[in-house]
Prior knowledge:
This protein is α/β, with parallel strands linked by helices.
Amino acid sequence: MKSNNRVRIFDTTLRDxxxxxxxxLSKDEKLQLAKAIAKLNVDxxxxxxxxxxxxxxxxxxxxAKEIQGPTICALARAVPEDVIxxxxxxxxxxxxxxxxxxxxxxxxxxxxxxxxxxxxxxKAVEAISIAKEYTDDIEFGCEDATRxxxxxxxxxxxxxIAAGATTVNLADTVGYTTPKEFHQLLSHIKANVSNIDxxxxxxxxxxxxxxxxxxxxxxxxxxxxxxxxTVNGIGERAGNCAxxxxxxxxxxxKDLFGLYTNIKTELIKPTSELVSSVAxxxxxxxxxVVGGNAFAHSSGIHQDGVIKSSxxxxxxxxxxxxxxxxxxxxxxxxxxxxxxxxxxxxxCPCEDQEINNIYNQFLQLADKKGQVYWYDxxxxxxxxxxxxxxxxxxxxxxxxxxxxxRAISVNxxxxxxQKLQSFExxxxxxxxxxxxxxxTNEAIIIRDLSLEFAPENFIYNAKLSITLNNKPIYGEGYxxxxxxxxxxSYISILNIINMLNQIREHQHSLQSA
Length: 513
């Protein structure tokens, strides 16, 4: 492929993305994410704003030392001290870039900086000249470019390139523009900046009106060859262009764009999960590409189509982004064929009459429960073959107390097959204390917790999820005390595991008979 068909991916998860978080990431957390993002094979990683704090300077310096491969970039205002801080922090980097920005719109120049365009241009040129003492790779960014008169943009961009900028970035800082407007603006710049061919044109789009990916995509049709983006689209306010979305758009629509990136797409999902976990920012279920429902199918018509051929309802395979396979969600909308397919795939083949009986039971359960999980269907299959005990454990009493400022103690009394058993554990939080109780031989690691309060009846609803043998199990519990609701949710998971163990024992007995 020709190099002018390659789109450079500029990841700013650790700079713009971090600005959206309620707490700053530690130096070690930033390095952990930097290593994962580097493995994605991004071209450039913007990892901080060294002049903003000693901590950010140290983080940028550490990443510059540790990360090989991508160009390591740091952000600076068009201020000499900022540029020098970037240059010093980036010294250890194998490949380095200094990203200098200044606002160009009349709104920002007048209301924020209190200067005119010529003064902003002079500051930019001076900053670029200082940056050249540290690196030849210099990016110049126009903040609020989409609210800047086109002739003003052309003027400052031409001066910046002449001063030594090798990449020029136009920021739709408040997510204001539309694809058509953006295309026109970019075309105007390419036609009226005499030295534009000496720099790579880049865009940085925000998502305030939900157009960050659309505007970024349209910019590529206007000749842009660098997209600034973040994993999961995290960033200021409504976020940034999502790395996973723009990457897979180019992959899925090669017919339209004829462009490519060097991203290792099979690492997209695990990287998304890591960023979500470390940043403590959940990914919404219906998030494109990486959301929990991105490859989930619950409608009977859709499930039947996907079973026959995945391309009926999937525009690319989940494995392409690191998801093991698509998932059929079972609800009252699911059809008989989907239930039969699942049971056959899991080693539970059924005759027509048996599947009819199971399907009728499934519909009753779905109407009552809403979503039916894989272990519910397994239970329906086996419940007429094995005398399953679906509630082995029941809560008799629970005491949670703070053992110290940083520790919690949990004492449970459970009824287990007519016997009372006591379990006690101490830890730094309730979740870890529950995991340490050793009620079952299974290693239970709680992945997610949600806690909702219903003010109309003063009840907490706790939902936990775990992964057992690479399969999800979900628990739910209700109580006026949030801690007890969490404990009840945990016990419901124990009962599901116990039921699955009974089924496994039955299968082993059949094999040995």
